[in-house]
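Have a close read of the entry that follows and walk me through the local backbone shapes. See right below:
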Amino acid sequence: MKKNACNIVIGGEAGQGLVTVGELLSKALVRSGYFICVSQFYESRIRGGHNTFNIRVASDEVIAPQEGINLLVALNKETVEIHKKDLLPGALVVVDEKNGEGCEICIKVPYKQFSSPRTMNVAALGVVGCILGLKEDVMAEIVDQAFGKKHPEAALENKLAVTSAYEWAADKSANFEKLPQIASPASRLMLNANDAIALGALSAGVKFYSFYPMTPSTSIGLNLAAEAKRMGIIVEQAEDEIAAINMAIGASFAGAPAMVATSGGGFALMVEGVSLAGMTETPIVIVMGQRPAPATGLPTRTEQSDLEFILHAGHGEFPRAIFAPGSIEECFDVTRKAFQLAETYQSPVFILTDQFIADSFHAVAPFDIDKTSPIKAGSTVNEVLLPYQRHAFTETGVSPRLLPGLSQHLVITDSDEHDEIGHITEDSSLRKRMVEKRLKKFEGIKKEVVPPTYVGEPQPDILFVSWGSTKGSVSEAASRIEGKTTAALHFSQVWPLVPDQFLKTLKEAKQVICVEGNAFGQFSRLIRRETGFEITKHIRRYDGLPITPEYILREINS
């Protein structure tokens, strides 16, 4: 366990405002100078059920969730019963006095004495803030910013609830260790993966975003919609995923850098559009937020089971790239990279996330955007040979892409096989050349592959291989193993694979363990297919819950 750290779990029913409490507390912690890692567990229902908002907080960087609980904030009695087995030594439970019967480590709060039913969750926020040692003025400011602009009266009522909670809790938690004070809090952003992807897309120059709401990717569209007017972009909620991807392809064809986001079931409807983008050589970025399947599966849980689906989606053969960011910073960076690759090689590019990282807030340093610039769409007239041919053969396979309506030249393409101009053809020899032209772009994509990151000892006893959202948990688990040298090899780009970047590292390790959230070991199978190297030790999880450091350590020792 980390020193000077605390794992806070806020539990209750959907509709009790636990997400509001969780996000406000997280913001207060970040503003006070702490690092956080948030994981959310919620059922696919509007009211009822059992949900939690988990915040692991520390004075130094936090990269993974934690299973054991130090501070449990129970908004109902059921939460105490469900999580009492997870309480660590010295843990504390904050609960309404009517629900704390028989609980020896509970602070039983008489919420009705200093808050109304509609402000009880904010009163709980105040009690927790006082217990942790957060400054009351920081908490009050966070509450005011959340409610003040749209609901001034509600903001005042909630601030009074916070003040009353601080006064009540001031002498109630003497035995619970407060967080260490941060003398000069650094300025950091509180972001989850969907926030960072939206920001990365904006910095890359996205101009069109279409989507049909689907957990866990919906908030990407909501973030972009909130900035649409100010940033001059179009955000369109389509009637279904088929319409969404075809809208985006049309916008991209016209010169607007475009992106769509969905989950497995929605992407299943998009697949024909992916193939259309491949044939017409139209840039498009597709975010795929993974969740347990088949079919609807567990729509609000997490998994990494769609890698092979994305790798082979779309009929026919055409080049693509697939990213799988493992941190909030990587989400921003790979989104920019995805737009650049899509435009450069005129192909679909994918970003694979999952529910865990999509909903996981972290404290991150502000992104340095002064050195970035938007992606330039299309070619200029002086870059093309005349007469203009949209699908002209070139040494790289990349044809000049004039944008329709921006020059005197006619831009033609077709979803059927076509000639260099873009007209339909059934000429077999021309078909062969066109296939080879499109596949030639793959060589350029391979030259720009983001190499995996390596952290740890050289030639270790145990080398962990990970991709996507398991990065933090794998790194922490590796650091907690005693008596053996360890290292972690993380892939933020999972296709194409370039063996020269990592195969020697795999061969030099005494034991290689691949950690991933699926039942088949999809990434380890891909490594074997592309390199011949077989990873024989696996840690897999497919129960809908995220892979934690504790889970990895248990599996190693089992």
Observations:
- The chain has four domains: 5-183, 191-364, 378-448, 453-557.
- The longest strand covers residues 48-58.
